[in-house]
Amino acid sequence: MSTRRHLLRAALAGAIAPWAQLSIAATPAGAGSRRFVFVILRGGLDGLTAVPAVGDPAFADARGPLASFAGDALPLDATFALNPLLPQLHGMYGRGELAVLHATGLPYRERSHFDAQQVLESGGSRPYEFTTGWLGRALPGTALRAVALETAVPLVLRGPAEVDTWAPSRLPEPGADLVARLELMYRADPALAQALARARGLRAEMDTTPGMAANPMNPGATSAGANPGRSLAVTLARKAAEFLQHGAQVAVLELGGWDSHANQALPQGATSNNLRTLDAALAALREGLLPGDAWQRTAVLVATEFGREVAVNGTQGTDHGSGGASFVLGGAVRGGRVLVDWPGLAKKDRFEGRDLRITTDLRAAMRTLLHDHLQVPRAALDTTVLPGSAGLSRLDLLRG
Q: 78-115 pLDDT, tens per residue?
């Protein structure tokens, strides 16, 4: 990826088909291939806001003002509910497409965003144990193709395999005269001439394919509203679905801004808007994968680097914690369940008297999805992909 010619080919992809990477989208995926999406929530999602334990006797006292929401919480079972700002996820839960992991987290406990995110993406048990990512180490030896919906390859996908990236282009559409001049300029270079021809063919293909967005910067008002951040998140989710429909099997997206030290419960505050954004983006991903059987063969893991403290702080927010909530969704997921060994919210039950105690290692979900869904051999998981996780129990996440 570091050669000048490769960079020029990437530039052509942006100029002629700014919403697609050539190497991924030009190769249709087989109908039977499975898909996996990893969604990183950077900043530390408060799991008790996203998935409140309304049936825990200590919940109301432990959470104080954060125990109330703008609307009625959406029931999951006798103990847990979803935040009312997650109606699309609640619909997936009702259809058996969403499983919730609660009281989950990583071996890391020191409350640093940077270190915790490094552990989340590297798959280690401590910061900087690995300089590559668990997904990046899982790709070699498989036929899996991966794409990151970012401007650079994130740590989780770094490793020996080649990974494509995509981000929305703000460049204007090229005119016919410019394309003709490019053809003349690159005629003497077979690689660039071929890349240009592929880009033009891809553009024609995607323009005539039902459901493909003509304008990558216009995700549609019905899903995203007027919120620019939400619009971008929905755009990226839709684009991930397009790549997964046209040749990729693995995609990584990220949504930032989940730090919630102050005014966490404001109806139009950062946390509330982030929950709306997450709900809209995951709904857009599902919608984009519904044609054919892609959604039925998809599993999505949504995770954050750590949870928050149980109690509200002095600025009506929550500080860095340990245990939290994650989501596993998709047509391949056996959903409609909350998977949890619930530790309780009474102060005596909290980690260090502060945090929701972790009872499920998030790496158990990673192992299960990699082995049972993507068919990564268990020996590779034990020695290369997620070293130190061999003793973790398999989670019952998938259908059949």
A: 999 999 999 999 999 999 999 999 999 999 999 999 99
- Residue burial 158-195, b: 16+ Cβ < 10 Å; e: rest: bbebebbbbbbeeeeebeeeeeeebeeebeeeeebeeb
- Tokens 């039902």 correspond to what residue? 210
Mean pLDDT over 274-285 rounds to 98
- Tokens encoding 212: 């493909």
Pairing of strands 324-329, 298-304: antiparallel
Tokens representing residue 350 in the block: 């909290």
Mean pLDDT on 368-385: 97
Q: Which two tokens stand for residue 133?
A: 């990512």
pLDDT attached to residue 265? 95
Pairing relation of β-strands 98-105 and 146-148? Answer: unpaired
Closest to 50 measured CA to CA, from 313, 289, 323: 323
Task: Give the amino acid at 250.
Answer: V
CB 71 within 8 A of CB 52: no
C-alpha–C-alpha distance, residues 321 and 45, integer Å? 10
| Alpha-carbon span 280 to 89, nearest angstrom | 9
Assign 251 to helix, strand or coil: strand
What pTM was computed for the model?
Answer: 0.84
* Cα 333 to Cα 12, 67, 99, 126, 363, distances in angstroms: 38, 30, 7, 29, 17
Which residue is listed with tokens 């997964």? Answer: 244
Average pLDDT for the chain: 87
**Alpha helix (H) ranges present in 190-265?**
190-207, 221-224, 228-245
Task: Based on DSSP, count helices (H) and strands (E) in the chain, helices before strands.
Answer: 14, 11
What tokens were used for 164? 């494509």
> Where do the structural domains in the chain lie, given as residue ranges?
1-28+173-215, 31-169+223-385
Nearest partner of 58 among 378, 342, 287, 307, judged by Cα: 342
- Answer for the pair 86, 275: CB distance below 8 angstroms, yes or no: yes
Fold entry, domain 31-169+223-385: Alkaline Phosphatase, subunit A (3.40.720)
In angstroms, how far is CA 266 from the centroid of its own chain?
A: 25
Per the listing, tokens 């690995």 go with: 130
What's the confidence (pLDDT) of residue 201? 61
Q: What is the C-alpha separation between 328 and 227, in angstroms, rounded?
A: 26
pLDDT surpassing 50 at residue 260? yes
